[in-house]
Amino acid sequence: MKELVLLSGKGGTGKTSLTAAFAHILSSRILVDADVDAANLHLITPHSVEIEEPFSGGILPVLNPENCTDCGLCREVCAFLAIADTHPPRIDPVRCEGCGVCAAFCPSKAIRLEPRISGVWFHSRTEKGPLLHARLGIAEENSGKLVTLLRKRARALAEKEPCPVILVDGPPGIGCPVIASMTGADLVLMVTEPTLSGRHDMLRLADLCTKMGIPACITLNKWDLNPEMTESMGREAAARGLFLLSPIPFDPEVARAMTLGKSLTEVSTGPASQAIRRIWREVEDLLGGTIPASHAMKPFPMTEGKAEDSCF
Predict the structure, then answer these.
(1) H/E element holding 160?
(2) Count of domains for the chain
């Protein structure tokens, strides 16, 4: 079993569309939507929810007014100004960070700590395997813990149900949820675009992969909208030791697939769909360890400007 994590360094580059297309191509897989702050893989992956469980990402202090002596010590020790100056005191759940200091210092033990329900996670069934996804509550934190929970569930399922690959649709950026989604993975697939912001975030994510010791490959979405930037980013990616996969051309069929709530490979055999199928074959080779080291130094395929040319 191999675990592939699709990341972008920024939002809106097409990694969810690519994940859904991979899921459609494979005959068996486990899907994980690790973008728990804004999960959307389930929108283009037909599924039925089998398990729905609450997620507790921290603690919440609860005041028992009967035991409270209104000494005001809890207000004094709260660094987040989460306890209102009322009688009895009122704890603001939005300001509260769940540190537990108020409960520890309360002389009358009027404050108890309870699990804070931060969201809900789902185990859903799709035609070709499980889908693990979640919904984090508004303004809730600890998304990294929720991502870790989903990945642990996915690995447990992979042990019970033999599966060739776990596909993880990661969150944008390089923060805690991203680190939680990629730790211990076999391969990171970076999906970016030929823009200045795409280049900037590609380099940040490449540095993160290097520091964490995780091999990474990269594809550029809508490469033909800016061929010069694509060429430049390809050289920089190769210099960082990234494996360069086939790029994806701009294709209006992508938008049509999204409006239909389906993956691109389900509804189209156009240039973008063909590129994605080629990319999956290249990813399979990487996961199988058959790509020569010299491949990392090849530029993006731009022979005669044809998107269908492969780097193999």
Answers:
(1) helix 143-160
(2) 2
Which distant-in-sequence residues (6+ apart) come within 8 Å of 81 by Cβ? 95
- How far is Cα 230 from Cα 221, in angstroms, rounded to an integer? 9
DSSP state of 247: P
Indicate whether 209 and 144 sit together in one domain: yes
The two tokens of residue 299 are 């530029």
275 shares a domain with 208: yes
CB contact at 8 A, 28 and 92: no
Phi, psi torsion values for 110, nearest 5 degrees: -85, -5
Note down the domain range covering 201. Answer: 2-55+123-305
Tens digit of pLDDT for each residue in 164-216? 899 999 999 999 999 999 999 999 999 999 999 999 999 999 999 999 999 99
User: Residues 224, 82: one domain?
Assistant: no
**pTM for the model:** 0.85
* 204 contacts: CB under 8 Å, gap ≥ 6: 9, 174
pLDDT tens by residue, 29-39: 999 999 999 99
